[in-house]
Design goal:
This protein is an alpha/beta fold and 318 residues long. The protein contains 10 helices and 6 strands; from the N terminus they run ααααααααββββαβαβ. The protein folds into 2 domains: 173 residues, Trna Endonuclease, Chain: A, domain 1; 131 residues, no CATH class.
Length: 318
């Protein structure tokens, strides 16, 4: 089965069409995705001000009560600090900081150890706090509504700036999966998650699932769950009954794709080592994927469907 990887004469024209489609989407949808996220972030900043008595009380207890505020606290310093910088300055761990910013407290860490980590993080934030922005901290009076609003806007903009790329990427992935869903539903497929613990080969014909975990064996010989964006079992399954595996990929520049191309090759290798050489991993592409990227993936045995031509999924037997 080949879709586009064996058609290099079409690659350049498809790259142009893909870049044009991505740019059109970005101009129309990405700013709205950013604005929606910014509105939510403003609410987070307001909640931070309330929880910390307008930034006067930044303590371990406050972070324990609402761990996710740590991400906003990093944007309240001068200069704003990245997650890795906070890790280094507080002698903490990246895993702990990531868990906190996702709103989770570590279950297995003793409370005394967690408090010690949070004490050091709070000390860093308090030392680097942007006192020019929070100018009311040099007095005893509460901030005026104008001071509070200005500080909230600045911290919100910093936070959105730090996560701008993921905002756009998540919005584009949502769009891509919606296109795949619509294409499949038009062809009488049923969205039905495959139960975990049951062999993926037993997936029901004519069904599909998004963000499905597929067990694979990694380089260390350990079984792990590999998240796949879309898993599709054709109405007429392939001979080995392995469903089609699809990864949605978008990119706003050519540089990023060349850095990321090895990820797909590694994923394909692990899948083939686990399920055999016939396993089909297909990319659903939109954006800046040049001939160099396509050639690399083709050499790794990976095929692709362009978002501007989703009907090519039919060439995969769907």
């Amino acid at each position: 089965m080949t879709i586009n990887r064996a058609k290099p004469d079409l690659w350049n024209a498809d790259v142009v069409a893909s870049v044009r489609l991505y740019n059109q989407w970005f101009l129309e949808a990405a700013p709205q995705a950013y604005r929606d996220t910014r509105a939510a972030v403003v609410d987070d900043v307001e909640a931070l001000f309330t929880a910390t008595n307008d930034m006067r009380d930044i303590t371990p207890g406050i972070i324990m009560a609402n761990p996710a505020i740590l991400a906003t606290l990093r944007m309240a310093t001068a200069p704003p600090i990245a997650r890795d910088r906070l890790m280094g300055l507080s002698y903490s761990t990246g895993a702990l900081i990531k868990s906190l910013e996702e709103g989770k407290l570590p279950r297995r860490m003793p409370r005394t150890e967690l408090t010690a980590h949070l004490d050091r993080m709070c000390a860093v934030v308090n030392e680097l706090l942007d006192r020019t922005l929070f100018d009311w901290l040099d007095g005893s009076s509460p901030p005026t509504p104008e001071q509070r609003e200005l500080a909230a806007v600045v911290v919100s903009d910093r936070r959105c700036g730090a996560v701008a790329d993921p905002i756009v990427r998540n919005a584009q992935e949502t769009r891509q999966l919606a296109i795949i869903r619509s294409w499949l539903l038009d062809r009488n497929y049923v969205e039905q998650p495959h139960p975990s613990g049951i062999d993926i080969h037993q997936m029901q014909p004519g069904t599909f699932s998004f963000r499905q975990n597929v067990p694979v064996v990694n380089e260390d010989g350990k079984s792990i769950n590999m998240p796949i964006d879309a898993v599709i079992q054709p109405h007429t399954p392939y001979a080995d009954r392995m469903p089609l595996l699809v990864e949605a990929k978008s990119a706003g520049d050519f540089t990023n794709t060349n850095k990321r191309r090895k990820e797909e090759a590694t994923k394909a290798r692990q899948l083939r080592d686990t399920y055999g050489s016939d396993v089909q991993l297909v990319l659903f592409l939109c954006g800046y994927f040049d001939a160099g990227y396509l050639g690399y993936e083709a050499a790794a045995g990976i095929d692709w469907v362009w978002e501007h031509r989703p009907n090519d999924f039919s060439l995969a037997g769907l």
